[in-house]
Design brief:
Layout (H helix, E strand, L loop, with lengths): L1 H23 L8 H30 L4 H20 L5 H5 L1 H15 L5 E4 L2 E7 L2 E3 L1 H19 L7 H4 L1 H15 L4 H18 L6 H19 L1 H12 L10 H13 L24 H33 L4 H25 L17 H25 L1
Antiparallel strand pairs: 1-2, 2-3
């Protein structure tokens, strides 16, 4: 009996020590480190190329060759801080406010269409300025659509195969957005949001045959563009896409200069900083057409490295989505990953004249405060989903 009592006391003391040790070292929520490294490499590559591509235009426009890169670095650093902070916020928070987030984004799209509120730049009213700070509501709408669609797909999970729940509410949302976006007009943003929405619907369970209805909306959107801009707007874009040398002194100048930059880069490029097209030949070399400067300075190798980074991003992003603890997390991670990858594909396609010029930025590379802040905020959400995936696994 004495030996049994002593044994029990030892077990109690051991269990106490184990409990104290567990309390002293709580299980930490880790995020996907490999995914974070990919993001940081994309950002570093982007900062180098924005500096290289922007200093001639910055010197000509502002008298300070460091004007654009200094602002870009500040946005990147602020975005990284926001990303790390958001990675600590439970992603379910966004589901609770899905309708509010969408409502705010919708209100901003309405406001930007009002003359005197939205600012016109390059023949399009896409910007709202509050003092010296300007932003594009379309960037906020991309995120709002992803959150709303993730919520609706999770809510209607078992009824996504029906037209009433799996198509109608999504189609109405996309149609409203398309109308407001084309008032700017913002064709590339409309195409991107439609693409994100349709891919999310298909992955979420919408039957393939119902996409005929979405196609009908697309036809309606094109008809709206024609009514708003005229038939010549569409035919002119198609004509200049098929024959980029038709008006090299005006309408196709940007496309031709982009192709010249890409072709002159060859396999290894002219060398970092040695681009010729950025010297006021290629408009927006640090923004929508930064990929052309990458091709010119770093050649095919540098361009393929960009593509490889986005492929790795897609692999890790969809991996995080597949490990998400619930349907909402799965769709949210999927939507964000689709947004970045689809936007990268569209940008590269425009720069190489694979599709008509629509004006769309390259994620993590192009200069722009609203875009980079929103993208890094979304990366914080993906990192948070990966934290929860890790906790589920352990």
């Amino acid at each position: 009996m004495a030996s049994e009592t002593a044994g029990r006391k030892k077990m109690i003391r051991a269990s106490k020590r184990t409990g104290e040790h567990a309390a002293a070292k709580p299980k930490q929520k880790r995020f996907d480190t490999a995914f974070l490294i990919i993001i940081l490499i994309l950002l570093a590559y982007g900062v180098i190329m924005v500096f290289s591509a922007s200093y001639p235009a910055a010197l000509q426009k502002t008298g300070n060759s460091l004007h654009f890169i200094s602002q870009h670095v500040l946005f990147v650093l602020a975005g990284i801080a926001a990303m790390l902070l958001i990675s600590r916020i439970d992603y379910h928070f966004y589901r609770r406010f899905a309708y509010i987030i969408f409502g705010v984004a919708l209100l901003l799209l309405i406001l930007v269409a009002i003359p005197g509120v939205g600012r016109v730049l390059n023949n399009a009213r896409r910007w709202i300025y509050i003092g010296p700070i300007g932003f594009q509501p379309s960037e906020i709408m991309k995120f709002a659509v992803i959150v709303l669609f993730s919520h609706l797909i999770a809510h209607y999970q078992k009824r996504m195969g029906t037209f009433k729940k799996g198509v109608l509410p999504f189609a109405v949302v996309l149609l409203v957005i398309a109308v407001l976006m084309m008032l700017e007009p913002h064709l590339s943003g409309t195409i991107l949001i439609f693409g994100i929405g349709c891919i999310m619907m298909y992955i979420g369970g919408t039957k393939l045959r119902y996409f005929l209805a979405i196609g009908g909306l697309g036809v309606g959107a094109i008809a709206g563009i024609i009514a708003f801009k005229g038939v010549s707007y569409i035919t002119e874009r198609l004509q200049f896409w098929l024959n980029p040398f038709a008006d090299i002194n005006d309408k196709t100048w940007q496309t031709v200069q982009s192709l010249v930059a890409i072709g002159s880069g060859g396999l290894l490029g002219r060398g970092i900083g040695a681009s010729r097209q950025k010297y006021l030949y290629l408009p927006e070399p640090y923004n929508d057409f930064i990929f052309a400067i990458i091709c010119e300075e770093l050649g095919l190798i540098g361009a393929l490295f960009v593509i490889l980074l986005f492929v790795l991003f897609a692999v890790r992003g969809f991996s995080i989505a597949s490990k998400a603890p619930d349907r909402f997390g799965f769709m949210l991670a999927t939507g964000i990953t689709v947004q970045i990858c689809l936007q990268a594909v569209l940008n590269i396609a425009v720069v190489t004249n694979t599709i008509p010029n629509t004006g769309i930025s390259l994620p993590f590379f192009s200069y722009g405060g609203t875009a980079i802040m929103m993208q890094l905020g979304e990366m914080g959400i993906l990192l948070n989903i990966s934290r929860h995936a890790f906790m589920e696994k352990t």
